[in-house]
Amino acid sequence: MVELAECFLPVEDELRALEDQIQRELQTSSPALKSLVSHISGYAGKRLRPALVFLSAKACGKDVTADHLRLAAIVELIHTATLVHDDILDGAEVRRQVKTVNAIYGNQVPVLLGDFIYARAFAMSVELPTPDASRVLARVTQIVCRGEIEQIFDRYDFELDEAVYFKIIEAKTAELYAAACELGALYAGAEAVQIEALARFGRKIGVAFQVIDDCLDLIGDEAVVGKSLGTDLEGGKLTLPLIRLGATCDLLERERLKALVIEDGVLDRRARLMEEFEIGPALDYAFQRADDFIREAMVELEALEPTSARNALRNLAEFVLCRKK
After folding, report:
1. Residue 136: CB partners within 8 Å, gap ≥ 6?
2. Which single residue of 100, 117, 245, 283 has CA 20 to 30 Å from 125?
3. What domains lie within the chain, and their CATH numbers?
4. How sure is the predictor about 1, in pLDDT bands with cuts at 50, 70 and 90?
5. What residues contact 11, with CB distance under 8 A and at least 6 apart?
6. CB of 121 closer than 8 Å to CB of 77
7. pLDDT at residue 99 in the model
């Protein structure tokens, strides 16, 4: 099992500096916003995306600069804004073992808080020496929103196939991973072939991350994962394990599965799913597809010279596959 701390060794100083950078960027004179910013500081998670900014620069044989520190903070703020909005969409009550903003204040406050964080991130991007970050991040946020909208429109659709599922998660999750790698390399002055390879690497591990997340939503331990689970099933989102289960069921089982997902008033759908269906093979299939994406991602690293940073990226990919939270 790869430990995250091991993956972060080449950039541990940069990640420590990131925390101060984020706090400075979210400073505000508004008492209400101060309280909210303090609350969501408890959302701080693995910092995978900012680590990818730093590691991508170093994996190209370049130094991490002040621009990279700002880019890492921007990427993490955009991620945080998506979490605040996602919790509203999912009706989640816990995020990283902290009560969600929507659980405390209802939906109006987190909508505006997420918008505030997005705005701050984009304000930071225009202060960079080139417009490349603003261009990339504008593209990313459009793609992320499109993916979220498409997923909402595809709820309860048992005709949803794997190709559409992967298109959705590539948009709503993987695109920000790709951008983190792309920007890290771009602002390091890396060659185009390295920038493109790292962007593909980020996108592939982002897809794998979401597949694993979708599996954990069904079989994870809330005390370990640190957030509300079963929300995809409760919200009618057809994730890869459910798509695979539905595709391999007989007709009668498929109708029972539809009823479990669609009907109102079903108590603890997640537990019922585990009790009434043999979901193990579908989960094994999903984990194997995640593994496929991780192996493809590692091939992209062959465009880089062997360094401790490249090795850390390989280890980070392994961590994504093996994580339990």
Report:
1. 179, 182, 183, 186
2. 100
3. 4-322 (1.10.600.10)
4. confident
5. 51, 54, 55, 58, 64, 309, 312
6. yes
7. 92
